Amino acid sequence: MLEAEFTKYRRDFEVRVSLQLGAAQSVGLFGASGAGKSTVLACIAGIEQPDDGHIDLGGLRLFPPSLSLYQRPVGYLTQEPSLFPHLSVGENVTFGVPKRGASHPERLSWIATLKDRLKLAPLWDASAARISGGQARRVALARMLARKPPLVLLDEPFAGLDRQLVRELIDDLIFWSKTIGFSMIVVDHQSDVLMRLCPESVIVLEQGQVVQRGAWSDICSAPATPLLRLLLAQL
After folding, report:
1. Residue 58: what are its φ and ψ, rounded to 5°?
2. Where are the domains of the chain?
3. Of 21, 147, 2, which Cα lies nearest the Cα of 60?
4. pLDDT by residue for the chain (235 residues), tens digit each?
5. Residue 234: Cβ within 10 Å count
6. How many H helices and E strands in the chain?
7. Which long-range contacts (CB under 8 A, 24 or more apart) does 21-25 make?
8. CA of 70: how far to CAs of 46, 56, 186, in Å?
9. How is domain 1-73+151-160+180-235 classified at the CATH fold level?
């Protein structure tokens, strides 16, 4: 479903990766801060443009040339919910839904499912500026999934949340990945997040280069580099 092989030049080093991902599959990106993990997601999302290579998603070429952000069927979730404070929770969730399909019965049913599963009903008409940080993360997740993207990019979206909420959000992502069939690329420093969301496939980056690939359990038991061994010891 996703086939990407590209290079992005940074000031200190180049980020060079290759990814192949099928429908409903997931892969994690792990490494020290500044290793290039977020750069990989930014290039796939269209926030940054690779310097070389190609990115194809389900027969759609994202690069080259660089496809516009609004044309990319990609969901992108980061630590910052980035909600529109002047809109209600419900308006935030449905903001990216194409207006022509907003009233379609199937679309309405899907929005209602998100609303119920993520416990947003009591907040639906509230101003996004007046909800808590944890609630804002749930709203951001619902907004990302409202368009049913075939590919979801997660850049440490659970940072700073309590463990119970993290478990609930991970449960939701796993459930919907199987239900909808979307694929995931996950960047996170938390071992339990990677173990649950992408146990079978993790890519380790150091200074922009892939130094190890494999199941998370295998990487933890036999780290390929001294830096990776140090990072794992700190988890």
Report:
1. 55, 40
2. 1-73+151-160+180-235, 80-148
3. 2
4. 899 999 999 988 999 999 999 988 999 999 999 999 999 999 999 999 999 999 999 989 999 999 998 889 999 999 889 999 999 999 999 997 876 655 678 888 889 999 998 999 999 999 999 999 889 999 999 999 998 999 999 999 888 888 888 998 999 899 889 888 999 999 998 888 999 999 999 999 999 999 999 999 999 999 999 999 999 999 8
5. 6
6. 8, 10
7. 21/151, 21/183, 21/185, 22/183, 23/150, 23/181, 23/182, 23/183, 24/177, 24/178, 24/181, 24/182, 24/183, 25/1, 25/183, 25/184, 25/201
8. 9, 16, 21
9. Rossmann fold (3.40.50)
Order of strands across the sheet with 74-77?
Answer: 60-63, 52-57, 2-9, 14-21, 209-214, 202-206, 26-30, 183-187, 151-155, 74-77
**How many Å from the N-terminal Cα to the C-terminal Cα in the chain?**
32
Are 37 and 231 spatial neighbours (Cβ–Cβ below 8 Å)? Answer: no
Give me the torsion for CA of 174, 157, 70, 61, rounded to 10°. Answer: -60
Distance of CA 110 to the CA centre of its chain: 20
